[in-house]
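Exercise 7. Predict the structure of Endophilin-B2b isoform X12 from Salmo salar.
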Amino acid sequence: MDFNLKKLTSDAGVFFTRAVQFTEEKLGSAEKTELDAHLENLIARADCTKNWTEKIFRQTEVLLQPNPIDHTGARIEEFFYEKLDKKIPSRTTNGELLGQYMLDAAKDFGPGTPYGSTLITVGEYQSRLGGAEREFLQTSAINFLTPLRNFLEGDWRTISKERRLLENRRLDLDICKARVKKAKQAEAKAAAEQELRVAQTEFDRQAEVTRLLLEGISSTHVNHLRCLHEFVEAQATYYAQCHQYMQELQKELSSANSDTYPNSFASNANPSTSATCPSPVSSATLPGVSPPCLASSSTPGIAQEPSGPLKIPDVQQPSTGHRKAKVLYDYDAHDTSELSLLADELITVYTVPGMDPDWLVGERGNQKGKVPVTYLELLS
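Solution. The predicted structure, encoded as C-alpha cells:
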C-alpha cells in the first residue's frame, strides 16, 4: 500500500511538472526542444495518412451499406459480431429480398399469366443481382475495409502511443535543461546535469523508436495501394455482372413479349441499342401497354416499300401526326439509319407503319433518322 501511494504521488508530481512546462512553453516563458526536420515531416505525413484513411474508410462503409440503420439492423448486428470476435454471417441483400417477393407474388397471381411469368423472370434476375452485390460486399470488406481498419485500430494506435511517450520525454528533457540553468550551487548543478544526460538519452532513444514507426507509413501506403486495386477490381466485376444480367433480362422480356403479342413487338431495331439505353425496359415492351405516339398505319405521305427493311431516306414527314420531343440523354447513332442526339435539344418526331414501337423517326433540320423512344420526352 505504501509503495502504491508513493508511486501515485510520484506520478502526480511528474504530471504536474510536465503540465507546468507545457504551459510555460505555450506562454513563451520556457524554451522548447524542437524535433529535427525529418522527424517533423514524418509526423506530418503520418497525420495526413491517418486522417485520409479514416475518411476513406468511413465513406466506403457508407458506399457499401448506405442505410446503416435499416429494418434488418445490419450495422448493429455487425457491431456485436465484431465485439465477440466472430465471423459475420452472410445475410440476404435487398436485391435478393426483392426477388423473393416477386417470386412469391407470382405464385398468387398465377405463374401462367403474363404478369406472373414476368414477375418470375424479373424476380430471378433480381436475386442474381442481389447475389452479385453480396459477393461484392464481402470481397470489398475483406480486401479493402479490413486492411484500413487494421491500420487505424492497430498500427496507428501504436504510433500514437509512442508519439505521446516522445512528447513526455521531450518535456522531461526541457525540464532538466531549465533546472541546470536555475542551479546555483555546484553540487545541485552537477546533479541537474546528470539528470539532463539521462533525460537526453531517453529522449534520443524514444525519438529513434518513433522515427522507425513513422517510416513504416511508406509500407502502409504500398499495402493500401494494393488493396485499392483489389477494391476497384471487385467493383468492376460487380458492375459488369449487373450489366450482363440486365442485358439478359431485357432480351428475355423482349422475347417473351414478342411471343405473347406478335403483332405489337415486330422488331426492326438495332439489337445493340439495348445495351446502351440508360432507361429500364420501355413501356412499349411491356404486356398490355400501348407505345406512346403510335400513329395509324394509314398515315399519309409516307413512302415505304411493301416488304423488306424500312428505308429512312425515303420516309417523308406526314402533314399531321408529328410532334416535338425533348431529348433526355445523349445518344450516338449506331448506323446511318439512326440519328445522333444531344441532351435537352428539341427535335420533330413521328411514327412509321410497321416500325418497331420502341423507335420513332426524328428530324433536326435536314438530318433524319431513327431515334429510341426511351431517350425522349414527348411534348404536347
